[in-house]
Please model this.
Amino acid sequence: MGVVDTDSLRGQLLIAGPTLLDPNFARTVVLVTEHNDEGAMGLVLNRPSTSTVDEALPDLELDVAEPEDLVYVGGPVQPAAAMILAEFDEPGEAATIVLEDVGFVSVEPELGGGSVATRRARVFAGYAGWGPGQLESEVERDDWILEPATVEDVLGESAEELWSDALWRKGGEYALLSRMPLDPSLN
Model:
């Protein structure tokens, strides 16, 4: 792939390359939510759990997520930590904007948590994290394929197909890769 741009990758998708076999990340799509000299953080977008928001977070008193929505496995770091990404009517109400009008919901009332106007939201348990230079090295090794994220990638209804869909959208050799079976020897 060549040299990684040293600018922030915030708002980019990391699409797991075919050689990335770590079970935490095989065939995942990660939204980079923060990237700077100190490292990077992201959320796996295509791993819904079997737990609903109400089951996993019964005391959550925010009006942004529906109780019957599934919690997504955001990554292997701090799996008990809940993070909420939402599409805001007023982006200034987000704790941090990641992409367009999508950002983190503050769960601290003194930071504006509670009742905020959002259109859609998704709750994540855990996150993915990288130390300084680690993500750049993984991209240079072709572990990850970069693609600009869209709001639909983050909050759309087709999370299970996101890996294939994002590669197809990228086109060229990636479109062919998008149709690769889980076990290529069965092809």
